[in-house]
Design a protein that fits this description.
51% of the residues lie in helices and 23% in strands. By secondary structure, it is an alpha/beta fold.
């Protein structure tokens, strides 16, 4: 975990130098929301307008860009992976704006809400049904946070992907 922690600290410093405030998403955000699981990369949600500056900064830190589109980018440096989702749609911008700041061993970090994280995990699964880890994460997050979830917000995400019956099944 120490390499991952150092990678996160370095990324947070780079984001600060570039004037952007990312939110942690992906596997580490799942862990931050009390689900025990392993992960080997770091995932952030960032403002779409910061994409070019962040891309250049990551290249300057020695990362190689494996993939980049208007929606996302994947970077690697040796054994370290760093993935970005760009917030340009209203819903993603709202989730980024509402991310809560937490004091972590890596420093102050914004982390996406449980509901938002479930929404992103659902999107990942809908885009690629072989990503069964996403469904496992959704189940675990629902189980742990069932009594505190904003169900209306979750219904909105599941409706967005025409998966209302799946939510009913998962909550049933």
């Amino acid at each position: 975990m120490s390499n991952l922690a150092a990678q996160i600290r370095e990324a947070l410093s780079m984001f600060a130098r570039n004037g952007t405030e990312p939110a942690l998403i992906g596997g580490l955000a799942v862990v931050a929301h009390q689900v025990v699981r392993a992960t080997k990369d770091v995932d952030f949600l960032v403002e779409a307008e910061a994409a070019d500056n962040v891309h250049d900064a990551l290249l300057g830190l020695g990362y190689q860009c494996l993939y980049r589109s208007e929606d996302a980018a994947n970077y690697v440096r040796a054994t370290e992976g760093l993935d970005l989702l760009y917030a340009h749609r209203p819903l993603a911008r709202r989730l980024l704006a509402q991310a809560l700041v937490r004091d972590t061993p890596m420093g102050l970090m914004r982390i996406i809400s449980v509901e938002g994280l479930i929404g992103f995990k659902l999107q990942g699964f809908v885009n690629d049904p072989t990503r069964t880890r996403d469904m496992d994460d959704i189940r675990a997050l629902l189980k742990i946070h069932r009594t505190s979830l904003n169900l209306d917000e979750l219904r909105e995400y599941f409706a967005l992907f025409n998966k209302q019956e799946l939510l009913h099944e998962l909550l049933g």
